Fold this sequence. Notes:
single chain; mainly alpha; 0% strand; elongated
Amino acid sequence: MTNDLAALMKQAQDDDPLRALHATTALRREIERLEAVQVRRARVAGLAWSQIADAIGVSKQAVHKKYGRQ
C-alpha cells in the first residue's frame, strides 16, 4: 500500500492535468478509507466521539454524523 500511495503522490504532481486529477481523486478515496478504519478502531478501543473529533479536527457532531451510523 505504501508503494501505491507513493506512486499516486508522484502521479498527482504530473504535468498532465488529467493524470494528476485521477491520482488526486484516488488519493482522496484512499485517505477517506483509512480515516474510516481508524475511526472504527478508535470506537472499538472505547474512545469518545469528542476525542476522535479532536484528533480529526472537526466537531463531535460532524464526526458522529459521518461515521456514527455505519
